[in-house]
């Protein structure tokens, strides 16, 4: 009996322990619930419960009401996942205003903020991961207020009035991954401006929309793990070899909309992992044949649109044997030589030549574009696009835009209607809806290309004799100076001041 009794007691003990463990497990598995303070306590701010905590929004109010709302929140232990203070009158962020609060994402946007006191953010150091102070009146980086934010991942200071980044401006932000300073008035970045940031952590830096006159090389050179650098929309008029040294992990460089007039030799030679380069919107007329040395193995996206380039910079591009996306829109290109894409064209899937001055395309110009899927020739001066020009690429093309050209309706355009009919699992609807027109001079009227009245045009075979003769006089190697026809002579006169080598 004693044994039996002992066994029974043991069973009760086991059952009790099992029940305790079960309740403990439920306590830890059960989802945590969040609760907003009363509307009266928070007004005029609004509160919403989210999965990870509270979402608070205070708009069109002032410092007094915001301080009152923060005081109401201090009595709870709730996680404030988002605190958004937008369109307010908040010229100063006062010391200890967030003391006792656990805030993960803080936005103070378009609120006339000009002063961030030293201890205003210090209590948030253990939880704050994102801080947005954009579109305010800051004239300098509030460095002292940032010093304790040791878990911050993203800092947004866009659209302020900061004129200079002084040494150690971001000291203490040793976990920062994204720093964006777009559209301030920055003219100066001191050599140790970013000292204190962990150069292994920072992945993206945006200095666009400022007043920099040169690349801040000394300040950037330690960022050997930086992936994306944006310095577009500045006043940079010159780059040279060595400007980007130290940035060996860079994947994307945005230099668009500056004042560059040329791309010199080896300007990007330190950026061996660069995948995307944007040089659009400058004043570039000359691209050195060695301009892209060092980018051979990885560059896939190159944007050269909205410049003053007079011909395809083939010599500079030939080493880019992985290039997929080439944008040359809105330049002054008038002739595409037969060898324009020789040596690098077999990987290109996207080619944009729209808004140039192209009048003719020789029969072999696209012969090397074996992977081309998108071709944009919109808004040029083309009257004819013969079938033999398109034959090398017609099987891979998914999208072609030849709108806004003075095309003449003739048999050489028959390929377009046939190509459009054969589209399968591609951009059929988009292409069908395009109003690509040509003019039938004999009838003084326009036709959509897919509605060409071929039965009245007496087209025979592929019309190869006609297209061959129309292209027999095309200049070959125009951009390297070989000119053999009267047409090419006229073209040379128009671009005598251009550089292509």
UniProtKB/TrEMBL annotation:
Keyword flag Membrane: yes
Designated name of the protein: LRRCT domain-containing protein
Transmembrane segments: 7-27
Record-level GO cellular component terms: plasma membrane
Classification via Pfam families: LRR_1, LRR_8
LRRCT domain residues: 405-460
Assigned keywords, A-Z: Leucine-rich repeat, Membrane, Repeat, Signal, Transmembrane, Transmembrane helix
Gene3D superfamilies hit by this protein: Ribonuclease Inhibitor
